[in-house]
Amino acid sequence: xxxxxxxxxxxxxxxxxxxxxxxxxxxxxxxxxxxxxxxxxxxxxxxxxxxxxxxxxxxxxxxxxxxxxxxxxxxxxxxxxxxxxxxxxxxxxxxxxxxxxxxxxxxxxxxxxx
Amino acid sequence: xxxxxxxxxxxxxxxxxxxxxxxxxxxxxxxxxxxxxxxxxxxxxxxxxxxxxxxxxxxxxxxxxxxxxxxxxxxxxxxxxxxxxxxxxxxxxxxxxxxxxxxxxxxxxxxxxx
Lengths: 114, 114
Prior knowledge:
Low-confidence stretches of chain A: none
Order of helices and strands of chain B: EEEEEEEEEEE
Shape of chain A: globular
Low-confidence stretches of chain B: none
Largest interface: A-B, 20 and 24 residues
Structural class of chain A: mainly beta
Shape of chain B: globular
Oligomer: heterodimer
Structural class of chain B: mainly beta
Radius of gyration of chain B: 14 Å
Strand content of chain A: over 45%
């Protein structure tokens, strides 16, 4: 099984450009998440989708939008990229959104904004 | 005081050593405790998962939770170079009214020297 698949793996953007990060899971999980990971900051939750049809803000949502396209797919969009959004972005999924459902992560998208 | 504290290291040990990785936390509502392993340029992968206090063993890995001290540990016996990675602790709580909280430590970078 592929688990959680993220595309692209790497991306370089200029300030002001837009892009969409794609994520798909094949584990029939209900909940999906987008995190960013920065040196010294750890993993920070951007947005999550507890179930198909719902999305909610996490800790650092500003500058991002998300779409839960269907049960498998959850995309993250940067409308106008800024250098502060240079980071590694991880998508994750879990059976449901509760403590008894650990997260499963993809391998990340490394984004540089110049 | 941050909710979850984890020494970032780096920690360097010789092959075959016993490794102890630790996290402290302040939120007494945390009930579920996880350890993730993250290899360079990869996503975090779930290593150990425990509920409430006590020990859990899986091969060379032992997870220990002491809720009275708000302290969790991961022990690695007979450490191998392949254990070289960043180890993230994570903990979660299901709170009232359907709310849920998952918090990660910032990770400890471990190097096992042959």
